[in-house]
Amino acid sequence: MIEGLIKATLALTALVETENDRLSTERPSEIAPLIKEKSRHALEYEQLVRPFRQNPLLLRSATEDQLHALRAAMQTFDTTVMRNGKLLLKLKSAREAMLKAIAGELNPHNKRPTVYGPGTSVADRHSASALTVNAVV
């Protein structure tokens, strides 16, 4: 039972690490094929964890080596999932900023009249400001 949980944890960790790799190398479109497999592994993991949550005494039947391997797998899994959350949050923030910028450009109420050419006055001109972009993705 413990060995199955260790294997499931390692398999799920490997999938999340693959997703992290694709997110960190700016290939988010390549994570879609992983979703179905990740869901399947997560369900398997949940089914294997449930008996231990319901009866923690089941862990007493595990050897010290098994417990050590399980702790190591769980720690790696937690670290990997935390990194995944950060990468997904960065991606979400970058996409939202991009969408806001596009929407701002498309909004007809934000359009300023062009004041080039003869017949324009200084009063027709709007002050300009510098655009600064400082986004880390």
Written account of the structure:
The chain has 137 residues and is an all-alpha fold. It has one domain (2-111). It has helices spanning 2-24, 32-54, 64-106. The two termini are 41 Å apart.
Order of helices and strands: HHH
* SS element count, helices: 3
Given helix and strand content, the structural type is mainly alpha
- The chain-level mean pLDDT equals 82
Strand content: under 5%
Shape: rod-shaped
Count of the domains: 1
Low-confidence stretches at least 5 residues in length (pLDDT < 50)? none
Rg (CA only): 26 Å
Number of strands: 0
Largest sheet: none
Q: What is the CA–CA distance across the termini? A: 41 Å
Proportion of helical residues: 55-70%
Entry keywords:
137 residues; mainly alpha; 3 helices
Write the layout of secondary structure elements.
Blueprint: H1 2-24, H2 32-54, H3 64-106
Task: Give a short synopsis of this structure.
The protein is an all-alpha fold and 137 residues long. The chain has helices at 2-24, 32-54, 64-106. Helix 1 packs antiparallel against helix 2 (32-54) and helix 1 runs parallel beside helix 3.
